Amino acid sequence: MERLRLASGFMAPIVAFLGIGVAIYINRSWWRFTENALSDLGKLGLPHNWIFNASLVITAVLGVYYATGLLERAENAIERAGLWIFIAGLAFLAMIGLFPEGTAPHYYVSWAFFLVSAAGMAVLGTGFILSRKKNLGVTTFAILAAGIPLAFWAKGHFKGVAVAETIGAISIALWHYVVLLTLARKDQ
């Protein structure tokens, strides 16, 4: 895979977490990890909401550029389908930034990001198992098996959903880096 696509893939989660971190810092006087949603950092009317929202859009663009490069490496139709589903999940990530909290579509695109991304991971993991990447497939399902129940546990135990959202985001980022590093190693 070309270096620019790999660099885009490497940078995508960093841009997201950096933007979220800066937004948390700027709004530290009122925002609480256990009482709020991450999207509260990008809501309409909030000063500097663009930091949170733009970081999600930029992350999605970088992620889509990287993921479309993976399509060339897909070994079967299931891997390709999983990648297209994951790319759709990234489109929903961009829509979280484009339709911030306070707009009608926000709730739906926020849920769609996590659900569609997890579905893409599951389909892609199945494709990995059916190809010559069994360890990558097993790792994919291990991350899903740990991340999903933990996120739902957090959703039920905290007033806000930021903890659950962060667990989901970390799970997706962890999986993303496992895939990226595995494929990058094969290129050497």
What does this structure look like?
The protein is mainly α. It has one domain. Helix content is 77%, strand content 0%. The protein is built from 6 helices and no strands. It has helices spanning 3-26, 49-71, 77-98, 106-130, 134-157, 162-187. Helix 1 packs antiparallel against helix 2 and helix 4 runs parallel beside helix 6 (162-187). The longest helix has 26 residues, at 162-187. The model has no long low-confidence stretch (mean pLDDT 94).
Summarize the main sheet. none
Percent strand equals under 5%
Q: Enumerate the spans where pLDDT stays under 50 for 5 or more consecutive residues.
A: none
Number of structural domains: 1
Helical/strand content category? mainly alpha
The overall average pLDDT, rounded, is 94
Helix content: over 70%
> Which radius of gyration do the C-alpha atoms yield?
16 Å
Distinct helical segment count: 6
Task: Tell me the total number of β-strands.
Answer: 0
- Which term fits the overall shape? globular
- What are the secondary-structure elements, in order, as H or E? HHHHHH
N- to C-terminal distance = 10 Å
Quick overview:
This protein is mostly helical.
List keywords for this structure.
188 residues, 77% helix, mainly alpha
Strand-helix topology:
Layout: H1 3-26, H2 49-71, H3 77-98, H4 106-130, H5 134-157, H6 162-187
Helix pairs in contact: 1-2, 1-6, 2-3, 3-4, 4-5, 4-6, 5-6
